[in-house]
Prior knowledge:
18 helices, Rossmann fold
Amino acid sequence: MREVLGFLIFLGIGVIIAAAVFWYVTTVIQWWRANSGPPSLGSVTVLGLPDVQAKALAEGLPAIILSELRRLGERTNKAKQQLRELAQTPTQQAGLQDARFDQIPIPESLKADVAVPQQIGGVEVGWLLTWIKDLLAPTNVINLTASYEADGKKATLFGHAKGPAGYAFFVRDETGLPHQIAQAAAASIIQNEQRRGEIAVQPLPPSDYLPFVDALSAYATYERVVRSHPDQLERPNYKEQYNSQLKTIEKIAEAYSEWGELQWLAAAIAERAGDRKKALVFTQNEHRITPRDDPRYERLAERLKRLTENSIAAAAPADKRENDREKAGLLLDEHAVAPFRALISVPASPPAHAKVRIALVGQPWEQALKAVQSRILRDAKQHESISDYTTGLMQTARIVAPDAMYEFAGVEGTGAGVLPPQELLRGLEAIQQSDAQVLIFGYGPVNASLLEFLRRLSEKMVVVVAAGNGGGRSSYAPLDDVVLVASAADSNGRRANFSDTSPGSISGPGVSIPTVSAATGGIVPGSGTSYSAAFVGGAAALLKAQYPTAKPAQIVVALRDTARQSDRMIDVTAALRRLGEMLQANPGTN
Length: 590
């Protein structure tokens, strides 16, 4: 009898342990699946109402919240996808790396919270299993509590997810209506996904978040329509609509200055509305809260510089603007540029290079060309930012090759870095028909037609392209075998965190490059792979000057083969020596 009783006790304990293990394993699997998917709701509790009303509301809220999550999420994601497709700055990779355009995960269904059994085989284990659940609970299964005040009208919505990362929010609702509470919950859950990485995120209430979604959607639509017209004269003018949006979005952006994406949108709308002063303020806010190791940090610094300069220039008298633009064509002080020449080993006495022709897409300011040997290959009515951009590239290339002939193909566009594909090809065709020997190129978007055109152009001249500022793989990588893809490096030769690269890319200085501002006449630092391309283009011009019969492919090989192994920084002196050896060893190939 004792043996049977002992066996039954042993068996009972085994069943309890097996049931606990089974519950634990299935719970962990559910939690793992929850953490790996979109955000979801766990329990929904309603306090402060009669039991019957509270229970009915708690049962009905999840479906309404899910509907709102889908509506807001799908609208936001559509706008982000449109902006991702449009944001192809110098390379496609730049757009792909931009977290602003990441899609928000939208739940397909709502997951119920994992139930915790209080007893197993008559043994009280609820406290233990609850502790395990609280320890391992997924952070994207959010439990909601709607707490009503005594009048049953006003409510406060609390959201909480347990786990290592944690997550909590509260939103005040003045109506207590189920639809309003559902909107508040959906907006808060979406913002948790949209604003990951921020500290102590307090979500915007629906009264502020819904206008943000409206503005984002309208902005994406306007930009898509405008960019669909290659001819600037045919483009619709949405300035009035942008001004109307700005009146709403600026108040929200001022109230929530710690949300980077909101600051970016407010700055973009303000600039298109013509209010550069407000655009500058919102860009300063975004720059302030962007980590230095974020690829956007340097791009924001460039944008800040441009907005600041444009604000100063707009307030300056006409004669001062003329003088400042003329200063931008003068050579910089030797003390400012000597460290950059030393970094890439430019000879103390470089080859005479007045006969070498360097081409760029875009026209600099006319006043900046007074002291420069130059020629306009194609005249075009272009945006002032393109004039500033091209003037800066010319200045940088002249640090290495100050005496070269600079040739420019003007292009119509709304800003530097991105041009309508047809207009971009028109500028390159003008350069193709010229006698240019080096091309410095830093535009996008990159597509198959552009890559093929640059490949053909590389047979006639040395083509140097800016790798891009997305912090990833350059979209010019397919041209590694025929062109020089220029990545950016700092003053110590380290690759800049924002710089794209390719397997065959080489580096040039691209961080804090001194240039004379055409807007203010003062020296300002610039960063980006376009500056790196200008340094590499200047180096290619010196090689061509020393060896006029060298083919473009030979100059490309000489610069690439002699780039320092440690950081891929170009070495002009070593490249000159290497090219000479190549031509001497194979005299019949030049």
